[in-house]
């Protein structure tokens, strides 16, 4: 599990006419080999080369779709980006208003499900662990319930009680390249386990039965927020768009030229922003988890932020996992589980879920592709091999 709600493996969906590309964090600059409009000021209209050519060759009355980009928002501890195309009935002003509303929705989810504020619902649930149950917002309750379901189907590899280990491993702003002692991990491990969470559907209450047990939705709330933002854009009438927050991307429809959006699968040992494969993504979500975003190497061993809640130590079976799923929530929660399970058990989990696919780079740099993505994934080159 990721150690905190701010520890996300981010996907940079760059503002280019033809593709969005995966990266281990929100990229301020695109891969140098790819033309991009991300160097342009945010909140500008970016048209594809085809659209510009059509504009010069056709009468002024002919409608030419233009790409509208907003990559200047920030929420949930990460960079938030939107892009959409204008239509004869939805112009730039309407699209920008929709982007603002979608960003506000992401920030609303952030405030609702954060554990970074001591007065938040989840912080109060954590404080009441072993004492009493507390009622939470129905949305928060439903996301916690979804998280528990994923724990049940993933052998406990996705587990929101990973927050109980908070302070042991330091991979965020408090980065400290010194692994905790085995004794410290052993002392905290009994606090971890989704079976410590008890839900009551009748009154939307959560009770943690072990003092010291804590929960965090850092591994799932961002995906849920992306889905909610996408719903805002759909209600505004947008039919071709993407929304991306850190490591979570959702795309809707196809581009005006009929092609799909595309996302690059990050090379886990390559330079920042590099990718080894491309995957077309329309009406689907895309999320990547990797061991390269937050971590350090000590005595020839890599320590990173994706912790196996069963052991209390960083997972070792994978270097990166990319999930293709119907919703960003599913992609967000499944990528960590598959990363921890490893390629064989991870792919078995993926194949059991409707509309879900995966690309895995295992600990030995071997690439595994699920059945649903076989033939759809374009492998450009083999991933870089390094520690």
How does this model look, in words?
This protein is of the alpha+beta class and 387 residues long. It has 8 helices and 20 strands. The chain has helices spanning 49-57, 92-113, 121-127, 138-153, 182-188, 221-235, 328-341, 343-351; strands at residues 20-21, 45-46, 67-75, 78-85, 134-135, 197-200, 205-208, 241-245, 248-252, 261-266, 275-281, 285-290, 295-298, 301-304, 307-308, 313-314, 318-325, 357-362, 367-369, 377-379. It has a 9-stranded antiparallel beta sheet with strand order 2-3-4-8-9-12-17-18-19, with helices on one face. β10 and β11 form a beta hairpin. α2 (92-113) packs antiparallel against α6 (221-235) and α7 (328-341) runs antiparallel to α8. The longest helix has 22 residues, at 92-113. The protein is globular.
Helix-strand category: alpha+beta
Number of helices: 8
Give average pLDDT, whole number.
86
Secondary-structure element series = EEHEEHHEHHEEHEEEEEEEEEEHHEEE
Rg over CA atoms, rounded to whole Å, is 21 Å
Shape: globular
The major beta sheet can be summarized as: 9 strands, antiparallel
* Estimated helix fraction: 25-40%
Low-confidence stretches: 3-58
Query: What portion of the residues fall into strands of 2 or more residues?
Result: 15-25%
Order of strands across the main sheet: 2-3-4-8-9-12-17-18-19
Distance between the termini: 21 Å
How many beta-strand runs? 20
């Amino acid at each position: 599990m990721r150690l905190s709600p701010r520890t996300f493996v981010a996907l940079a969906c760059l503002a280019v006419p033809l593709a969005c590309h995966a990266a281990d964090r929100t990229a301020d600059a695109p891969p140098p080999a790819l033309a991009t409009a991300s160097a342009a000021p945010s909140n500008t209209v970016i048209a594809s080369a085809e659209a510009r050519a059509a504009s010069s060759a056709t009468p002024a009355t002919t409608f030419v779709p233009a790409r509208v980009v907003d990559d200047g928002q920030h929420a949930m501890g990460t960079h938030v980006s939107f892009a959409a195309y204008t239509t004869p009935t939805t112009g730039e002003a309407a699209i920008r208003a929709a982007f603002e509303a979608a960003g506000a929705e992401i920030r609303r989810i952030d405030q609702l499900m954060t554990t970074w504020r001591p007065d938040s619902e989840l912080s109060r649930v954590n404080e009441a662990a072993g004492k009493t149950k507390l009622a939470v917002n129905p949305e928060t309750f439903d996301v916690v319930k979804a998280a528990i379901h994923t724990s049940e189907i993933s052998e406990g590899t996705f587990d929101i009680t990973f927050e109980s280990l908070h302070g042991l491993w330091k991979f965020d702003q408090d980065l400290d390249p010194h692994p905790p002692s085995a004794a410290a991990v052993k002392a905290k491990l009994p606090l971890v386990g989704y079976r410590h969470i008890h839900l009551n559907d009748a009154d939307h209450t959560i009770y943690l039965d072990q003092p010291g047990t804590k929960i965090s939705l850092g591994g799932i709330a961002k995906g849920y927020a992306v889905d909610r933002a996408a719903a805002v854009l759909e209600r505004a009438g947008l039919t071709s768009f993407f929304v991306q927050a850190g490591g979570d991307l959702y795309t809707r429809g196809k581009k005006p030229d009929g092609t799909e959006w595309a996302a690059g699968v990050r090379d886990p040992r390559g330079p920042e922003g590099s990718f080894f494969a491309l995957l077309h993504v329309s009406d689907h979500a895309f999320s990547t988890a990797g061991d390269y975003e937050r971590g350090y190497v000590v005595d020839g061993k890599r320590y990173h932020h994706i912790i196996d809640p069963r052991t209390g130590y960083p997972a070792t079976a994978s270097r990166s996992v990319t999930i293709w799923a119907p919703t960003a929530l599913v992609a967000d929660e499944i990528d960590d589980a598959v990363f921890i399970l490893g390629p064989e058990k991870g792919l078995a989990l993926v194949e059991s879920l409707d509309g879900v696919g995966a690309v895995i780079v295992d600990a030995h740099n071997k690439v595994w592709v699920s059945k649903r993505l076989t033939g759809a994934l374009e492998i450009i080159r083999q991933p870089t091999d390094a520690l």
